[in-house]
Amino acid sequence: MVNPLYAVSAITCALVVLILSARTGNVLNRKESKDRAFLNLINWTALFCMSDGIWGIIASDLIMNDALLMVFSFIFHLFASFTPLVWLHFILSFLETDRRRYLYGFSNLLFVAETTILIINFWKHNVFTVFPDGSYHSAPMRQFLFYAQYVNYVAIAIVSLIHLADKRKKVKNYWAVLTFVGAPILAGFFQQLYPDAPAYSIGYTLGCCIIYSFVVTGIIKMRLLENLQMDQANKAKTTFLNNMSHDIRTPLNAITGFNSLALGALGHDNDKVRDYLTKIGIASDALLTIINDILEISRIEAGKATVTEVNVNVMSSFDRIEPITQELAANSGIDLEFSYGNIDDKFVACDSAHCERVFINLVTNAIKYTPRGGKVQVSCSQTGYRDDGYGIYTYTIKDNGIGMSESFQKQLFKEFSRENTLAVNKIQGTGLGLALSKNLVELMGGTISCVSKQGQGSTFTVVLPFRLLDSQDCGQLTDNTTETEDILTGKNILLVEDNELNREIAQVILNEMGACVTEAYDGNVAVEMMKTDLANKLDLILMDIQMPMLDGYEATRQIRAIGGKSAQIPIIAMTANAFEEDRKAALEAGMNGHVAKPIDIDSLVSTLKKVLH
Question: What span, in angstroms and rounded, lies between the C-alpha atoms of 538 and 523?
Answer without folding.
Answer: 16
